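Input for the complex:
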Amino acid sequence: KAGVTQTPRYLIKTRGQQVTLSCSPISGHRSVSWYQQTPGQGLQFLFEYFSETQRNKGNFPGRFSGRQFSNSRSEMNVSTLELGDSALYLCASSSEGRAKNIQYFGAGTRLSVL
Amino acid sequence: GDSVTQMEGPVTLSEEAFLTINCTYTATGYPSLFWYVQYPGEGLQLLLKATKADDKGSNKGFEATYRKETTSFHLEKGSVQVSDSAVYFCALSGDTGGFKTIFGAGTRLFVKA
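Predicted:
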């Protein structure tokens, strides 16, 4: 099975712009979660989608949004970028059933905001 | 709310040394506990897990035991290798409040040859 795929791997944007990141989960996984990883704050949960519905949300401002499509692929969008949004954004997918709490991560998208 | 606290790094060891990375948690109910590892330039990957009290998770020589009485899940390895250099994350996940995984801050491990 192919793993979780995130695109692009690297992005450079300037303040005020917006950005869209993409995540393709493992085939058959319907849950997709997004995390922001920074040296100062560690790994922070953004939101989780399941069957096209947001099921959980972290404590991030409304500039951070996401969606999930019927094929379980997910996108996250950050509008009006700030310097502090520079981070590694990780996507993880998981299955339902006994293994539902195990997260399978992609390699991440590294976003630099200049 | 639920939380995970793990020892700060970096931890620097010589090859073949014994490794312990401490992890304690706060949670309602009976969460599942995990250790994930992140190698440079990669995402996190599951190292081991335990789903109930007294369970021992093990993989690649690493072990951790779910201790409910001390709310701990310490990671151990008897003899580390240079290839074990990575960042290790302790995490918990429960069914209360919906499906969500809470991660610790991560502990960076350096192993010298």
